[in-house]
Known about the structure:
Oligomer: heterodimer
CATH topology of chain B: BirA Bifunctional Protein, domain 2
Strand content of chain B: 15-25%
Strand content of chain A: over 45%
Low-confidence stretches of chain B: none
Amino acid sequence: xxxxxxxxxxxxxxxxxxxxxxxxIENEFVKPGKGQAFNRVKVRNLKNGRVIERTFKSGExxxxxxxxxxxxxxxxxxxxxxxxxxxxxxxxYQADASAVADAKQWLKEQDMCVVTLWNDAPLSVSPPNFxxxxxxxxxxxxxxxxxxxxxxxxxxxxxxxxxxxLFVQIGEVIKVDTRSGEYVSRVxx
Amino acid sequence: xxxRPRCAPDVMHKRAEMLMxxxxxxxxxxxxxxxxxxxxxxxxxxxxLDFFSTQFNYPPDNPRLFLQTSPEFAMKRxxxxxxxxxxxxxxxxxNSESGRFHNPEFTILEWYRxxxxxxxxxxxxxxxxxxxxxxxxxxxxxxxxxxxxIFQQATGLDPLNFDLPRWQAFARRENxxxxxxxxxxxxxLWLDFIFSHVVQPQMKAGCLYRVYHYPAIxxxxxxxxxxxxxxxxxxxxxxxxxxxxNGFRELTNADEQEQRFEREVAWRRQHRLPExxxxxxxxxxxxxxxxxxxxIAIGLDRLLMILLNKTSxxxxxxxxxxxx
Lengths: 189, 324
């Protein structure tokens, strides 16, 4: 894998730190007029999402991380692994629970996701920003209430639980924003 | 194509206004505006400054010329030649410096005052900043504070007493453990690291700081304090925790200056940095006699950033390096 000098640092660059892959979020060049130059970076650990700050002496080199993001279709879950496929090549990848993490509650078969590969193995999965899922369980709403005020919990076909307006019923399909986990609208079949 | 100016039109007007205020300020004080070459036969030996150099196609020597990293040597030669108090607004160039606060080509205001002590110059800096900043935004001018005091207040460490285990423990506590590998046993490097990572961020916004008496190991071109050899007669200026300028009670001793050059030349060689030669004309001027004086350089692009509350230097440049 390539190495990068601090003067190649920029947002989005993937580097190895303490044996983990990280993505640079911010890079600040710090240099006293009469002193040593540093690069102060904010980086996200691609395994656990944690953000940390780290300083390098300018001119130092850092090992790059072999990390790529690929659009893949979610196929199925076999109980242990979640399977994804690259549509163009039909190449398949299996991701474990730690890679899928919170994304699993939004994964519906055939939906497109972004899978991050590290050394060709899934590291994390990002669901689409919006998903359309059917409600499998929720309290019956009050007849005639279309205000949506208050709301109630609803369980979706993937197991996710979101708050929905009172008028929404079992069997209906709703649109959810996966970034906030919030109900957006009903979807007409 | 990004051919258009990067900064907004009002920024250009504010820059012109800033330059006018500066020129009026020095005119009222009978300080002479001068212009010295940007392209020079010699450059500073400071190992922390990376320069641009080029070849002058002029046989038989085809000499190597440097874009100045600051106008300091040329201006001191003028002072030694009897110019009296002088100031200059010019471009300076520093290679490999680019970031939110750095553009490799930038504008410097540099001035020298004969007979001024460090205190006198700090006072004059405050007067200039009052005129420049107050019409644009509020500014609280804090009394000058010594490097030792501000460092101790921010960290609990004495910058003059390099107690490595304590400094390492401090770095771990502050979640800056990488300092331990980066700085190793280099006192000056530890000072740079801690000052930029811990002290500067603690400076209060909207305040002018003048931090004086830097440790002697960071003396640069400043005179060593006559009563305390641990201190250099150097000060720096900060607003919003951003470094804006660096001032000295100037070193006038030619022998000491030459020794400092030689140490830096040796350091460069040892660290395989591009070699430079001592500036002989500058040393000759010092041997003839630099009058007792104090001088300071201020980065005007950063000052403009602060005046206009901009977060990056690109926002106050017409064509930052990427589109220059």
